[in-house]
Amino acid sequence: MIQMYQVSKRYPNGALALQNINLYIEKGEFVFLVGPSGAGKSTFMKLIIRRELPTSGQIIVGGRNVTRLRPWEIPRLRRSVGIVFQDFLLLPNKTAYENVAFALEVTEASPREIKRRVPAALELVGLKHKLSALPHQLSGGEQQRVSLARSIVNNPLILLADEPTGNLDPDTSWEIMDLLCEINKRGTTVIMTTHNSNIVDRMKKRVIALENGIIVRDDQRGAYCR
Amino acid sequence: MKLRTIIHHFKEAASSIRRNGHMSAVSVGIIALCLLILGGFILVIANLHHIAEDIESRVEIRVFLKDDLSERGIDQLGEELLALEEVKKVEFISKEQGLEQLKQELDEPKVFALVEKNPLPHSFKITLKEPQAVEAVASKVQKLEGIEEVNYGKEWVERLFTFTRALWIIGVLTIAALLTIVVLIITNTVRLAVFARRKEIEIMKLVGATNWFIRLPFLLEGMLMGLAAGCLATLFLYFGYSFVAAKVIALAPFLPWLPMGSVVTKVCFGVVALGMFVGATSSAFSIRKYLQV
Fold first, then answer.
1. CATH fold of B60-151
2. In this predicted model, what pLDDT tens digit does every residue of B253-291 receive, in sequence order?
3. B88: helix, coil or strand?
4. Angle separating helix axes B3-19 and B21-56, nearest 10 degrees
5. B25 at interface of A, judged by CB pairs closer than 8 A
6. pLDDT digits (tens, 9 = 90+) for B230-259
7. N or C end of chain A: which has fewer CB within 10 A?
8. In chain A, what residues touch B204 (CB-CB under 8 Å)?
9. Neighbours of B39 (CB within 10 A)
């Protein structure tokens, strides 16, 4: 699903974020991306959705060479990749329903399809009863669920979760993890960055550890630390 | 892009204006004020220009004829003058008419009592299509047969033209400067509104919206706000002008003040169009920076 060959990224200010990354992530995998701040995790995510271009190397996402996309092909790539952020990134003046519907409107989906899929996505994350709530009326965990629903509503091939539990308490974090597992079971490839060692250790999934832009460890059934 | 999407964008633009109510109101207010000042100034300049033109149109050439010219010669000369392309009207003024006019203008019966014989020659009064051509026409007429003297108040006319030309240049420069300022202020206002919503744009990009999908509602929003501001400014311009015009006409009835109607309508339409155009384009420009995510 995701392949990287000799990928390096140097920012214009000279900082070397990633060095010579080679990896292969299969369809349906669940991968943790761990490492200290500044190790290159965020850059890794940005490269996949083409928010940044690598300085050298090739990246293939879902059969498409991301580094060779023309500007007008980028929206299509991003529609096939769902994204969840630590700070949720919901539109503050749209309701939960509208926030999720937004991701579909962008694809010019028909109103019928929107009416069918938005409630389904919100039901999956357990928020069927709060469709018309605005983000500030929801708790942190609930906001993250809305953002999860938004990221999966158009059935993406890949889900990128950038510290999705970073702002949440342990119990709520586990609820989100259960949802991510559920989404993964339905066939979506999930890549999640995190600092939460507890979660990584208990999940027993593939762990890729980055340090100073280099992959220092890649375990199939890993833990946060060796 | 599907029709449904375009309708969706219109709804989106309208609801976004409503949601950002405070910001929208301030933007519309500022833009309306800018357009009002610009429109008002254009009307003032247009009136000054109109007055100057009215004065210019009174410029005329007086052609005095030689005494020995026969009646046939006079008729022929009149036709020759009328044949000149710059000439609008030629009026024959006989000795006697000339004296009558002079008497009326001077109003000094004692002076005329002393005059036994009419000293004035026959003359033509020439009105021009383009007052600026007065000097050229005068020199052409000078060369014709049977002419004693050509008079058009050379110095006075030159001063008048210098003045009206200066007025015109100042008017154009001021309007250009005002227009620039107005465009800058509108652009800046819209840019602030777009900046306030950069997060929204970022999210749109991340969920895979195409640039046009993001741009269009902003463009429509800018256009709608420009339209609202233009209408507001038009309202004030229209009533303000009729109020001021009434006052001026009462104070100085001799001034050829432009009537309500064509010019005011044109300016009002211009103001609305400018508001919409600048609103839309400055939205498009302001958003460009945020689209490169």
1. Alpha-Beta Plaits (3.30.70)
2. 777 777 766 778 888 888 888 888 888 888 888 888 787
3. strand
4. 100
5. no
6. 899 989 988 888 888 888 878 877 777 777
7. C
8. 102, 106
9. 27
